[in-house]
Specification:
CATH topology of the largest domain: Rossmann fold
CATH architecture of the largest domain: 3-Layer(aba) Sandwich
Number of domains: 2
Strand content: 15-25%
Largest sheet: 5 strands, parallel
Length: 230
């Protein structure tokens, strides 16, 4: 069965290119020209992936992503398209639920590689243990994150990144292993990983006294108590 993709883009020429390319690659592609149309389609249908422009008429991509996560309660992977190569914009997109971003002009081959990686990870099945490091707890079945009993909300990519670090705690996970595991070899993006890690630190460490996420300079990251040795 073909994977279903919703393309949300107000630039008709770009949207036509995206739809035509994905159709040729075997995807079942639907199209929405603005944020309101996107919400209507997301309410009534199931999609394996959403390709979502940031700047849209009506309601923008950030608002669409927020409503997808918090009103429709769907974890459909989202790739955000943005004309702005700005870290603050990307962090905001991730905070509101985007899984990945691509800066325009869009390289169609790269877009499809990232789409495959996100769909593959969303569809993957596995055990659902409860992961615990110090006062941090992640139930990988319900995707509920708590620290010191306080619930923490985060988008899907950061959840997978947190789970990866917690599964290997207190060992170090290399940057290469992170990009390969989260995005796939074809779609590895070090800058994207750094932006996600910043957002993850903000959620997990900033409100609390003790730091759990540590950088091992020149190699990668680990999650551990301060006195926990490698």
């Amino acid at each position: 069965m073909a994977h279903s993709v919703l393309v949300v883009e107000d630039d008709r020429d770009l949207a036509r290119n995206l739809v035509d390319y994905l159709d040729l690659r075997g995807y079942a592609t639907d199209y929405a020209p603005d944020g309101f149309a996107a919400i209507n389609r997301l309410q009534s249908g199931h999609y394996d992936l959403v390709i979502l422009d940031l700047m849209l008429p009506g309601i923008d991509g950030i608002a669409v992503c927020h409503r997808l996560r918090h009103e429709l309660m769907k974890r459909t992977p989202v790739i955000m398209l943005t004309a702005k190569d700005d870290v603050d914009v990307k962090v905001s997109a991730f905070d509101f639920g985007a899984d990945d971003y691509i800066v325009k002009p869009v390289a169609l081959k790269e877009l499809e590689a990232r789409a495959r990686a996100l769909i593959r990870r969303a569809n993957s099945e596995g055990d659902s243990p409860v992961l615990v490091v110090g006062d941090l707890r992640l139930d990988t079945g319900t995707l509920r994150v708590e620290r010191a009993g306080r619930p923490i909300s985060m988008p899907p990519v950061q959840l997978r990144l947190l789970a990866l670090l917690m599964k290997h705690a207190p060992n170090v996970v290399s940057q290469q292993a992170i990009t390969r595991e989260i995005w796939g070899e074809e779609a590895g993006d070090k800058h994207s990983m750094v932006v996600h890690m910043h957002a993850l630190r903000t959620a997990i460490d900033k409100p609390f006294d003790k730091q759990l996420i540590h950088t091992v300079r020149g190699f990668g990251y680990r999650i551990a108590l301060a006195n926990e040795s490698l």
